[in-house]
Amino acid sequence: MALEVENAKLPYLSKCRLIKQGAEARVYRGTFLGKPTIIKERFSKRYRHPVLDEKLTHRRTTQEVRSILRCRKAGISTPVVYFVDYTSHCIFLEDLEGSITVRDHIASSQESGRDPVCLNTLAEQIGKILAKMHDEDVVHGDLTTSNMLLRQGSGDAKPELVLIDFGLSFYSALPEDKGVDLYVLEKAFLSTHPNTEELFQRLLKSYTQSSKKAAAVIKKLDEVRLRGRKRSMVG
Ligand SMILES: Nc1ncnc2c1ncn2[C@@H]1O[C@H](COP(=O)(O)OP(=O)(O)OP(=O)(O)O)[C@@H](O)[C@H]1O
Ligand SMILES: [Mg+2]
Q: What is the pLDDT of residues 176-198, one digit of tens each?
């Protein structure tokens, strides 16, 4: 398609299908060594100084790859990294074919009024995976229900929860950073999915039960919430 060829900086991208054009990255679907592959290409932002732009783009690419590898080492599901091209800032990732975002899953479950127990189980699953990630000192930086995928298991197996989009992630052992990570998710979660306060509480409960370091993080989350509220009252 004309759009794809025009956008593609690299010959191999011209053979791929553009699936998402974001503000910072384009996501393509294609193949790599015969395997279904997602290619995430970070592009330059013309309004940024070229040196700063290169630095930022490079940092996001390396952080995304590093955090994915660190998570995978700890047994947290994230896509396999097949290849990284640091010149064109492209990451080649395992394509989780047939997966859906947690966002779409919650929305369709709410719409159809299907079994709320499933959503409770999902919230617990999310709390658990985030506790594990934070215990590895990985802070995601952009936690939303769009950055979590559900991969259908075979047969009756429970769908697997997979974390994606680590471009804004960083390493930190600070409860404050982890608290902010949860705060970002809380804001996104409650604004995307109406009437899910209880569901989110369930997520936090599961987080608390899964991480030994949770008490300090939840304390920070409370502080950050308070700060947020004060700011909105001041206007
Ligand atoms: N490994 C993957 N397998 C299947 N689908 C994926 C995979 N990675 C991304 N996607 C799909 O592409 C969408 C966008 O991917 P991603 O969140 O990584 O990029 P983005 O949000 O554009 O990044 P940014 O935060 O830099 O703007 C996801 O919501 C998902 O639907
Ligand atoms: Mg995303």
A: 999 999 999 999 999 999 999 99
